[in-house]
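Dear colleagues,

For the upcoming journal club I promised to circulate an example of a predicted protein-ligand complex. I picked one with alpha-D-glucopyranose because it came up in last month's discussion. The inputs are reproduced below in full, followed by the predicted structure.
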Amino acid sequence: MTWWQRSVVYQIYPRSFMDSDGDGMGDLRGITAKLDYLHTLGVDVVWLCPVYPHGGVDGGYDITDYRGIAPEYGTLADWQELLAGLHTRGMKLVMDLVVNHTSDRHPWFLEARKGVGSPHRDYYLWEPGRDGGPPSNWGSHFGGSAWQLDPATGEYYLHLFAPEQPDLNWASPTVRREVYDLMRFWLDLGIDGFRMDTINMLSKAPGYPDTAPGSDYAYPLAEEHFLNGPELLTYLREMHAEVLSAYDVMTVGETPGVNPDQAAVLTDPQTGPLSMVFQFDHMALDKDTGSARPRWTTVPYSVPELKAVLGRWQTGLHGRGWNSLYLSNHDVPRMVSRYGDDGAYRVASAKLLATLLFTLQGTPYVYQGDELGVPNAKFTSIDDYRDVDTLNLYREEVTEGGRDPADILAMIHNKGRDNARTPMPWNAGPGAGFTTGTPWIPLNPTYADINAEAALADPDSVYWYYRDLIRLRRGHPAIVDGRYDDLRPTHDTLYAYLRTHAQEQLLVLLNFGGAVLDLDGVLEIPANAELLIGNYAAPGEVPSGTLQPWEARVYVTRTVEETGTPG
Ligand code: GLC
């Protein structure tokens, strides 16, 4: 097992973690000031979302300078101090690599748009229009066409995200060399890896064929024409050979739309160009796939389907590749609101979800604030939102489409990206202890109750439970390396699985939902099972055969021979 297979990663959205200078935005010195908080939690690696100079459109994912630090975050010296602070504590740093696109204010694009003869022209993807409109019907992730007309030359450029995020032309060897150089720049400064943004979008289908509309939406996402495209593996293998193979680093590719077989190729222990991927199958469980904008819809997810999806990935990659484990990040709602119960059972369900996250095979990712059980922020006015994706939805549906603002706000409350982007609640004081100034986005209204100071003072808090789970993971090879067996795949609320490795077997029981569950006739807990951790019962206790609402338990049964398969 490698160090990154044994690690737990903590994701920091720098704008919202900790503000050290009172400008209302988080910054690098703020993060450095909070390293002991992370060290106590027990995480091994920090993934830092982009801190580079950017165009101000997509929260840092529209980069104007790949080798710099945005002034609001500090300086390269501040960054080096953060890196040193992490390394001194035995923690590692992973940087975000955003190379499917740049900002339209990046010097490459400014040069490229000067004319068709510009030496930088082919850094990007340009096409003539068709019948007076864009070259194909491809839609952008943030709404509207994925093609933007450049009036000066009469050509269109491709942007899979905002128009201010033109896609790079990966078919150009010069572009690839530029990317490899900037990767070496950070690696040589001592970082420990990259999280690779939208990395399986690098290779587009030749000719940009139209996608079947599928709905009445004018510009559908043409995912089949840009996810896992024909040259993707060639590019990633080249990147690995040219750059990554020379360093002991981890990489995690953001790869929507991959299946376990594709992920196994990407992360094969011998030949895979990446360490692990972020797959999205479980992110689709609560979408209404029949609607025009599935991503913005919410339907109750089914527990058997959740088990089926996670199980497919557990068995599909076992021994063949490596997966990440996550239930939230800066692009999706808070996990306790989405998969748990952020009302009466907020604490219990946050702990149950963490139990799931930390006992499957893969590298777990904790998104900032989830270790406190922070729920979605539900702002009542669109003026409180900042995310380009959210604001575009509102503009298209309400301002231009005439829909009821309440309906669209309800969608945003469930699915908007700003749910996860409100400032870290450090304490109940002014600015939640995050800033002495005015935060760039309003605070999550729950901060007076749900904050780090309160969590640290409460031995039963979600935070300490995370710390215990992280320790537990370290002590049990069955979690990192064991086989996974789902014991009751079709049960409506019980998620029960075994993790089996050499002489050790763990049994995990999770009661998904607010109802008490009598295990009698459902599953028998083996007589020799010893409770390791639980969100109701304490280790060593012999809990009853009834699971409380959102109860989670992890048992160890010492030897495989003794135990067999329970139930
Ligand atoms: C990834 C990022 C997201 C960003 C998009 C475009 O999905 O996680 O925040 O908007 O890529 O870079």
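Two points we might discuss: The CA atoms of residues 53 and 71 lie 7 Å apart. Residues 562-567 have pLDDT under 50 and may be disordered.

See you all on Thursday,
B. R.
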